Amino acid sequence: MRPARFVPAAVVLLALGAIGGVAATVKPASAPAAVLATRQVAITAAIRACPPGTGGSQDRLALFASSTASGGAATLSPLTQAGLRAAAAPTASVTTARTLSLLPVPTTGTVSRQQGWSVMATGAMAQGVTAEIAGSNGMSTVSCGEPGSDIWFTGPGQQSGAGQIQLDLMNVDDLAATVDVNVITDAGPAQSADYSGITVPPHELITESLSSLSGGSSAVAIEVRTSAGRVAASVSESAGHGAASWVPAAAAPATSLVIPGVPPASANSGLFLVVPGTTDARISVAALTAQGRYQPLGSQLIDLPGESATYVSLTPLGGTAAALRITANVPVVAAVLVPGNGIGAFTAAADPIAQQAVIAGNTTAGGLTASIALTAPAGAARVRLTETAEGASTGASQLISVPAGRTVDAAITTPPGAKHGTPFAVVLTPLAGSGPVYAARIETQGQSTVVSIIPAESAPATISLPPIRDSYDAISP
Description:
Layout: H1 7-26, H2 33-36, E1 39-42, E2 45-50, E3 60-65, E4 73-81, E5 92-94, E6 101-104, E7 115-122, E8 129-134, E9 140-143, E10 150-156, E11 164-170, E12 177-185, E13 188-189, E14 198-200, E15 204-209, E16 219-228, E17 232-238, E18 245-247, E19 254-262, E20 269-275, E21 281-288, E22 293-294, E23 302-304, E24 308-314, E25 322-338, E26 345-348, E27 357-362, E28 368-376, E29 381-389, E30 396-402, E31 406-412, E32 424-430, E33 438-445, E34 449-455, E35 462-465
Parallel strand pairs: 4-15
Antiparallel strand pairs: 1-35, 2-7, 3-6, 3-8, 4-5, 4-7, 8-9, 10-16, 11-15, 11-17, 12-13, 12-14, 12-16, 17-18, 19-25, 20-24, 20-25, 21-22, 21-23, 21-25, 25-26, 27-32, 28-31, 28-33, 29-30, 29-32, 33-34
């Protein structure tokens, strides 16, 4: 009976040998290059989550898809605040790509304070799609985020003027998400059991006030991490009265970061730095300007303990927009606050543009000026900027050359043929052979008041599929 115990293993070995023999017989000496090549496949589905706006009846949702194909739709659906009953809000759909849509959001009763919005794009409308919360003039103030499992924000605490800090958690999926909110200040971690294990029901919104955790601090970092499911998140800060300012999500912690779109300001801007890990950090800061690179803090390094945040005042970086290059020995998170409306306008560390980026809501009405700050921290880059608006005969296009290690601030305006002041969308496309490119859209009122900064986020039209190789994974003993 003992030999019988080895029969299954023998059968498996025979099967593997037989299959290997057949493969050796029928497989060509080398697979065709086309089979092993990475394939680019069109994106057919994309989703974004938009927070409740702060402008009441003035709120709009700016939506733009850069695809040149036809078909598909982008559907706007409400994310009602968990535990509250709100008036029914109908869905809305957009089916035309390369057309800027400014969709009003309902404000019946207190609905606008109770719900966010999900944007589900399918088919061609999912290719290069971007959604943003904008005002009635079409100027976007915050990008609608993609759902994720680990999202970072950083900005001022109460000691730096942020009397109110609001966090919106949005679940666009069919399953509930479980969220832990971790807060780090200049005094170290500021944890509370109230912000652990938060359940965000499917297709709903939860709003949390984090003001109590930032009392007495000058810098605050917020990590939104899920242990189940995924969420999109947004953060707004205010002085307790007046307009709130949106804090953009920052790039994931890293030892090298670029913060694009730091405009010139009449008063000092503020740099916020966070060390999420327990190891102390040594951080250097370089400014990448139109004239080149320089050290705004001189040779000074910033020493920051692990699990802490700090605020660093920045002297003016020059007469044009710049970017900050942050390097450290351990992963860090970074953002900049520029003086302006409310407590100011934020820009944060971003990722380089992959394929293309889209800023949907831009305007030059009412004395506003708009520009795109482009930074090439490594190799030189060439970027095509295309502006599209309702009524324009064709999209206006300009080709911008960005020298290595510098920032170029390119003015953008309503394309020819469209009525002056008409909101317009901008598509940023780095050309082949360009080094990494970072960008941000800056809106300024008058000569120097910054009213909005939107760091550019990639809005790809295709994804890469890796090559398929031979595998015996289908055989299991």
